[in-house]
Design goal:
2 copies of one chain form a homodimer.
Chain A: H1 16-29, H2 42-49, H3 53-65, E1 69-71, E2 77-79, H4 81-105, H5 113-119, H6 125-134, E3 160-161, E4 170-176, H7 181-189, E5 197-203, E6 210-214, E7 217-221, H8 223-226, E8 229-233
Antiparallel strand pairs in A: 1-2, 3-8, 4-5, 4-8, 5-6, 6-7
The structure holds a DNA duplex (30 and 30 nucleotides).
DNA sequence: CAATAAAGTTAGCACGCACTAAATATTGTG
DNA sequence: CACAATATTTAGTGCGTGCTAACTTTATTG
């Protein structure tokens, strides 16, 4: 009856679903606020994964049994060290796959998320290694998000959101969330892609829409969309309280293997 | 570039497991015998998938409910038209992926099966189309097996097995099963790969081992291994007649480790 | 042809993972 | 502080997919 219970060391095979939870906990844990380990609420995970909150509770208990997360009843969840490692592996897989699909198979950058979402659970470490190798071990994915290294290091610098820039600020688009293709197309139509330079001209009074110059064009973006865009300040400007010690990095570098951070 | 809308004629909502059953039914249904659908036994499916026979019965009932197979109690299962279509799609995905991994990512041809086995359930039709396109729409996979076309056609010619050739026959190796890497390595060590020309010199009396000339080398292969090799006769000859004594299914065979190495 | 072997099925169970409804804990507010 | 609003968990359910054990049907064969 009582199966010899698992609850072992970190490296057990997880189901795809469990992996998704881990990834969600990681991403939500570092969303919005730079400071790392905010415990993640059940509802937030439920919303992210599109399932009922009650289901999340159960799964988290399972993950806790496996030693991948810690939960404090009614007070959220955070990853353990091994849970974090797994989450980063998964994110690496996701981003390597996205990069590969765009660069080698001609996928549109705004259409690649779902495919990667499915493949990331099936791809072996060898496959990921080979893809990364073919691409010259890129450090960012097509949406500008940093790719964790094979040994689990990731550039976790918190960047400014386009939505929080002050009027007059100049910035370079570093990346944006990859999970909504329509958002990505919306942004792309306005020239907002990784590497683009933008300048905030003004804000609309009622809805907070942001008027900016992208290249030569004048564009308006809604604050909701803008909040998904991460930017690096290009010139000193008053911008909240964020200090981005921007180690300048060339965007599409090829061949780069040293763990530089 | 149609946007991926699933749920067309045959609803595309199968789980990975169900897909595996379909594939197993297809492959077992045409193993050994060329002419179409011999009903496939529960045990054969169970053995192929590595699960208990009782579990197979249940799943087949589910698939029957979905209209993908027909079962006659105690008398085996066969695919319906839509089940067959799905199976062929899956096989196409598998073989395209194998081809891609070998040709574009440097995988060894004998090491590609498991990876493909997992990816085939996650890859979208668009991904498969793009992979096939990049490869120039190949018609056979790295093991010589024909790749079904996107619209579900496959070259189903039944080829001779190396095990059934008569002494003196000349043949060209067309392909071999992909699911056992150690078998593939065993064959490759003897020069037996798709395209190789072989001539049957003799047979060993006790174990039926086949002595043949591959290129310039003299090689011996066990009948178990040989039965997994499909060949095309190179010279007109008596070989076709052999099927009178050709054992269609030469016994499930007990676990055998390759004789050497 | 009756006895058995082999193949297949049913029954009952477990686990993963989702759901809804209801209970309970925490938090914010008048 | 009491109470409502919100967040979270528990309880009970269902489906997919596997298992073992026991039973039934079909095939073999002495």
């Amino acid at each position: 009856m009582t199966r010899a219970d698992d609850a072992k060391a970190p490296s057990r095979e997880l189901t795809g679903q469990a992996e998704d939870y881990l990834k969600a906990v990681y991403e939500l844990g570092r969303a919005g606020d730079a400071s790392a380990d905010t415990p993640v609420g059940t509802n937030a995970i439920a919303e992210r994964l599109g399932i009922a909150a009650a289901s999340v509770t159960g799964m988290l208990q399972r993950l806790a049994r496996l030693g991948l997360v810690t939960t404090e009843r009614y007070h959220g969840t955070r990853l353990t060290a091994s849970g974090r490692t797994m989450a980063l592996q998964l994110i690496r897989r996701h981003r390597v796959i996205e990069s590969y699909l765009v660069s080698r198979l001609g996928f549109a950058w705004d259409d690649v998320h779902d495919e990667a979402e499915r493949l990331e659970h099936a791809a072996s470490p060898e496959l990921i290694a080979k893809m990364a190798d073919v691409l010259g071990n890129p450090t960012v994915d097509p949406h500008g998000a940093p790719i964790p290294t094979a040994d689990g290091k990731i550039d976790e610098r918190e960047l400014e959101s386009l939505a929080t820039l002050t009027v007059g600020a100049n910035a370079r688009v570093a990346g944006m969330g990859d999970r909504d293709p329509s958002l990505l197309r919306y942004l792309a139509e306005r020239g907002i892609k990784p590497g683009a330079r933008v300048r905030v001209e003004s804000r609309e009074p009622f809805d907070g829409a942001i008027v900016l110059t992208v290249g030569r064009e004048r564009q308006t973006v809604s604050p909701g969309a803008a909040s998904n865009v991460r930017v690096e300040l290009a010139t000193a400007g008053a911008a909240r309280e964020v200090q981005s010690r921007a180690t300048p990095r060339p965007a599409p570098s090829r061949r780069r293997r040293s763990a530089d951070s």
